[in-house]
Amino acid sequence: MTQEYRQNNSVAPLRNVVALVELIERVNQRGPGLPGIGVFHGWSGYGKSTAAVYASNRFRAYYVEVRSVWTKKKLCTSILKDMGIQPAKTVSDMVDQIAEELARSDRPLLIDETDHLVDRNMIEIVRDIYESSGATIILIGEEKLPRKIAAWERVHGRILDWVPAEPGQIDDVSYLAPIYCPNVTLDDDLKARILKESHLSIRRISVNLERVKEFAMTRNISTLTAADWGSRTFFTGEAPTPRRAPK
Questions:
Q1: Helices 72-83 and 91-105: crossing angle, nearest 10°?
Q2: For residue 10, what pLDDT is reported?
Q3: Does position 117 have pLDDT exceeding 70, yes or no?
Q4: Residues 150-209: pLDDT tens digits?
Q5: What's this model's pTM, rounded to 2 decimal places?
């Protein structure tokens, strides 16, 4: 747990962590009568969930990551579990419990993988929670989430702001290197190559930094250059081509 917190704390300068933190602050500090739901959206691998975990620690937010098979009851019981509250018997009563706790505690609610709620026609329950609590609620999901929400006018009208997660940059590689590749100094050319071959994905950058660490450890290298790495490949996310069947 200590290691997990240290790593989460270390990702604070990542640009998408900053973007989510600023969104939560903006919704928290909204003026009277303004809507209180924010949306953080972007392509898979851009580090949205990493940002969500960091933000939930920073703001002491309640946090839930939706699964594709969840029902309304499962959503509510999961939120209440994070709140440390024994769920009531009905979904209606559980929504009231969630809303009461959010209003009492003045803590935000972060809902990750929100696309599943829209796809399963469950997004209206978020509006119910918001209307009953007036709390800050942040919906986190894939790039097309805003377009999906637009089809639900009563939810769409409660959105204060839409913030897109951005692709990784060279600074993100530098921030992640001490986490996934500790005690190894990387030259700028190698960092640039990692960024390019990771296709700007924060997740793949992390995977490739782990590979670099293993390479350096097996050779007892503390400083690594692009020349040292040579023609070795990085993880790009592309599926391998089928191999020829043995004869």
A1: 30
A2: 65
A3: yes
A4: 999 999 999 999 999 999 999 999 999 999 999 999 999 999 999 999 999 999 999 999
A5: 0.89
